[in-house]
Amino acid sequence: MDYGRSLHELSRLDDRVALIIGGAGHIGRVSADGLAERGASIVIVDISAERSQAVADELTARHGVKTLAIQANLENETEVKAVPQKVLDVFGRIDILVHLAAIVDPELGGWTCRFEDQSPAQWRRGLEINLTSAFLLAQGCLEPLRKSGHGTMIFFGSTYGIVGPDWSIYEGTDMGNAAGYAASKGGVIQLSRWLATTLAPSVRVNSLSPGGVFRNHLDSFHNAYANKTPLKRMASEEDYKGAVAFLASDLSSYVTGHNLVVDGGWTAW
Ligand SMILES: NC(=O)c1ccc[n+]([C@@H]2O[C@H](COP(=O)([O-])OP(=O)(O)OC[C@H]3O[C@@H](n4cnc5c(N)ncnc54)[C@H](O)[C@@H]3O)[C@@H](O)[C@H]2O)c1
């Protein structure tokens, strides 16, 4: 009887190269750690050269894998377009593209303030970083991903790319929610579906939509968020590690065009 490959084998990523765009961030670092644990070489791409190098060095120290740090500002088309070649110059291949860079800065003026004050300039930046750079990197990585034999793209959406905000959870806080964020994340999810049917069968494309990660929020917000979540808590970065490893590896070799929602059930009712 043939039982197929073991789960252990299906999740191995030896000899594969993974690009993590936004890899110096919270979820990016932890997701990269999961892929490195399964044997992938890791390329961290982020706006900060220092943070990217620190994450790359830590992953090599933790897992003995090859790593590379690339500084790029995703608002700069020339810098974005240069990324794939820089990876090919060092590794000669690209197998996995994970895009999870996004503007999430609550301090940014004209972004998460009341709708009347949200600025077109920040809206454009949000679309550029969250969505247009994903489009450009999908184009730039396409040929190596086709050659890979296991090519896969994973784009990070959000619950706010699926449903509108419930403003009641923000009551009593100075937190907000940007229309440009929601529009860019809805765009990312649909871009993934479009790419999935366009690039099949050689490259798989999926999106992953997280719910909110707990980062020392006010108790009132945290409790309101947890109460609206069937699993009764906010997420931790670790909650996304398995989902990224699943979509990146042969564990999901028959999955394309899917939006994997990892939100504790937030969008289920
Ligand atoms: N944290 C959450 O609660 C949450 C919820 C839903 C979805 N998400 C999504 O998950 C992904 C990761 O979120 P996170 O919490 O790890 O965010 P994060 O801010 O910790 O990481 C994002 C990374 O993107 C990088 N980045 C931003 N602008 C850039 C630019 N112009 N050029 C290059 N790099 C740039 C940042 O430097 C940062 O390292 C994002 O796409 C976010 O929208 C997060």
Largest sheet: 7 strands, parallel
CATH architecture: 3-Layer(aba) Sandwich
Query: What's the CATH topology name?
Result: Rossmann fold
Strand order of the largest sheet: 3-2-1-4-5-6-7
Catalogue the ligands.
Answer: nicotinamide-adenine-dinucleotide
Name of the CATH superfamily: NAD(P)-binding Rossmann-like Domain
- Report the helical percentage: 40-55%
| Cα shape | globular
The number of domains: 1
Number of helices: 8
- Average pLDDT across residues? 96
Distance between the termini: 42 Å
Please give the oligomerization state of what you see. single chain
**Helix and strand composition category:** alpha/beta
- Measured on Cα atoms, how large is the radius of gyration? 18 Å
In short:
This protein is α/β, with parallel strands linked by helices and 269 residues long.
